Amino acid sequence: MKLYGSQTSPYVRRIRLLLANHSYEFVNMHIFAEQYRQALLALNPTLKIPMLEQEGNVIFDSGVIYRFLAAQLQLPALSWYQENQLTVINAVNDSLVSLFLCQRSGLDTNEDRLFFNAQKERIVASLFVLEQQAANQEFSDWNYIAMALYSLLDWVLFRELLELDEYPALLALVKYHQQQNAIAETDPRLS
After folding, report:
1. Which of 13, 110, 115, 176 could cysteine-pair with 151, CB 3.0–4.6 Å?
2. What is the pLDDT of residues 53-97, one digit of tens each?
3. What pLDDT digit, counting tens, does each position of 118-168 carry?
């Protein structure tokens, strides 16, 4: 089993954390470098990571990879509530990735533009909900949802994308899970 991704991607990290106690090969790709871009395109027309390859089959998207691995590893299915939590986590992640790529493209994301404003509104609304859930200890079990949230929050801290001081329960969650298996080896700061 091969997992293609980058050391810095929060979507890749959540899958690596899920696979922490399993044998797999991690292929670290610098997806904006031309040589990796061509390799990525040969495997995945969406040009996105992560991808999982097993027995000649390539599976795209962290959500699809999770469902595949959950079946393979006989993990319990996510409840509808957990699916909704994952949707909120992904909304924050997607919006932050979009803003990050805009910034790296030289755009001023502080301009009063519909796209930038919509991303920021989604981030604030979603983090408010996640903060409440974290305060209720809903992410204390080290499961896929907690792994996804941890990966997002640590990526936010690594990239310095947001000040998280307004979210003490989310910051406490990061600290609480820092000793989990594979956290150190999947740290985006190692890139």
Report:
1. 13
2. 999 899 999 999 999 999 999 999 999 999 999 999 999 999 999
3. 999 999 999 999 999 999 999 999 999 999 999 999 999 999 999 999 999
Provide CB contacts within 8 A for 82, sequence distance 6+: 143, 145
The CA distance from 104 to 99, in Å, is: 9
The sign of the CA dihedral 59, 64, 67, 70 is positive
> Per residue in 106-126, is it b (16+ CB within 10 Å) or e — as a string?
eeebeeeeeebeebbebbeeb
Contact at 8 Å (CB) between 153 and 96?
Answer: no
Report d(CA 10, CA 78) in Å as an integer.
Answer: 19
Q: Give the three-state DSSP class for 52.
A: strand
